Amino acid sequence: MPLKEVGKEYEELPFDDMRLQDYLQELVCNENSGEKIYEFVSDEYDEMVAEDKEKWKKRLEFIEVIGNTNIIFGEEDE
Predict the structure, then answer these.
(1) How do residues 29-50 score in pLDDT, each as one tens digit?
(2) What SS3 state is found at 38?
């Protein structure tokens, strides 16, 4: 499966709401060590659990797959 097809069924987290560019700059400059991003994602996941725990579990399973360095995703032209 091509990489751009992986995860299409999962909604993106609303990073626009958190001023991602500012947080990435702070992260790169080591000003907050990712604390704000962690808090944002943690809050979003808390909401997901409250709304639909099974959907949240499937998202975590997906993250485990894409984070697994033993899995190789196909190229676009395969």
Answers:
(1) 877 666 777 888 889 889 989 9
(2) helix
Counting the structural domains of the chain, the total is 1
Rg over alpha carbons for the chain, rounded to the nearest Å, is: 15
43 vs 16 pLDDT, higher one: 43
Domain presence at residue 46: yes
How many CA atoms lie within 13 Å of 34's alpha carbon, on the beta-carbon side?
A: 3
Q: What distance in Å separates the CA atoms of residue 23 and residue 37, rounded to the nearest whole number?
A: 7
Threshold 0.85, pTM exceeds: no
Range of the domain at 59: 17-66
In a domain, 7, yes or no: no
